[in-house]
Amino acid sequence: MHGDGSGKLVSVVILGWNGKKFLEKFLPSVVNYTVKQEFEVVYADNLSSDDSVEYVRTNFPTVRIIQNSSNRGFAAGYNDCLRQINTKYYVLLNQDVEVTENWLDNMVLLAESDEKIAAVQPKIRSYKNPEYFEYAGAAGGMMDWLGYAFCRGRIFDTMEVDKGQYDDLTEIFWASGAAMFVRSSAYWQVGGLDEDFIMHQEEIDLCWRMKNLGYRIVFQPHSTVFHVGGGSLPQGNPRKTFLNFRNNLMMLYKNLPLSQLLWKMPFRFVLDWVAAIYSLMKNKNTKDVQAIFKAHSDFLLHWGGLMTKRKALLNKKPGLLYEKSVVFQHFVLGKKHFSDF
Predict the structure, then answer these.
(1) Beta pairing class for 216-227 and 117-126
(2) Would the pLDDT of 192 be above 90?
(3) What one-character-per-residue DSSP string does 288-328 give?
(4) Do 255 and 173 form a contact (C-beta atoms < 8 A)?
(5) Average pLDDT, stretch 279-301?
(6) Distance from C-alpha of 208 to C-alpha of 269, rounded to nearest angstrom
(7) Distance from CA of residue 280 to its chain's centroid?
(8) C-alpha of 36 from chain center
(9) DSSP 8-state assignment for residue 122
(10) Average pLDDT of the residues in 273-278
(11) Per CATH, which fold does 10-227 belong to?
């Protein structure tokens, strides 16, 4: 394990790129509610062209700075900086997140209670609409039986008001990369984030691989953060559509057992094109169709490398999936809330 020998228990690591406006707004809360003897805040810069690094250095002397030598995206950027950190736990925290008092303590207590807990997700609410859950994580990530990722508190684009309906400390399928508390030994045991993903769904793939080794992913309702969201790529961006569709296929191919892979992958290709046609009819925009076609093409181009990764997982226990179809529940039965499923 690489590291600096700091002796800290937790490193809260913010990977930033040209995000000074976010650092000005949100870094004060992170420092105020995090820095203590056993915790540290690390700002890892992905080769920003603004003065983010100088801003942090000047205004937050307690924050450790790591400067990546190149910008290789979200997944590779985190892997590069985390190799230089030697703590028992990491927190991967987006630069557009506001934290609250005791947000970190409650996750530490939970992880320390069970060494099989690999990752913990706090409650993620919207910074812009604080009473609502936020898209990227909400009250914990789930995966349906066809491989569609969704959240308790967020089904597709429908966000619920947080009324305490998910205030149960429970096991989930994946923890959001917007605010992921993760055991460093488990993170590196599975090889860290898959750098081919670049960004989007890389944290779901990471959690699935950790679950394959028998680790648990848990939601901690007594820890709350507020996330702006869409800071890197906003909803509706063709690049975001491409990455979401391609990365989902890559993740399924890597992690599904063969008995499920043989029929679910062809079915997902068909459903992707149903989604493309639906988008075309609804929005009269060909960009989503082009992005999905590109996603399928790029997935096929990665076939050889994915086969190698898949072989490394064949002897592992497959993770558990949600037993229902979120697509059927939402679009056919009209259910908009996870609590109605």
Answers:
(1) parallel
(2) yes
(3) HHHHHHHHHHHHHHTHHHHHHHHHTTTTSPPPP--SS-HHI
(4) no
(5) 89
(6) 21
(7) 28
(8) 26
(9) E
(10) 89
(11) Spore Coat Polysaccharide Biosynthesis Protein SpsA; Chain A (3.90.550)
Largest CA distance in the chain: 56
The tens digit of pLDDT for each residue in 205-235 reads: 999 999 989 999 999 999 999 999 865 555 6
Strands of the sheet containing 141-143, edge to edge, are 141-143, 149-151, 154-155, 158-159
C-alpha–C-alpha distance, residues 147 and 254, integer Å: 12
Amino acid sitting at position 325: S
pLDDT, residue 97, reads: 97
Give this prediction's pTM.
0.93
Torsion of CA 327, 321, 183, 1, to 10 degrees: -100
Tokens representing residue 293 in the block: 């076609």
Alpha carbon distance 89, 118 (integer Å): 9
Task: Return the amino acid letter for 94.
Answer: N
Domain spans, the chain: 10-227, 238-340
- CA nearest to 170, candidates 97, 117, 131, 209: 117
Kindly report, residue by residue over 144-179, the tens digit of the pLDDT. 999 999 999 999 989 999 999 999 999 999 999 999
Torsions phi, psi for 309 (to 5 deg): -65, -40
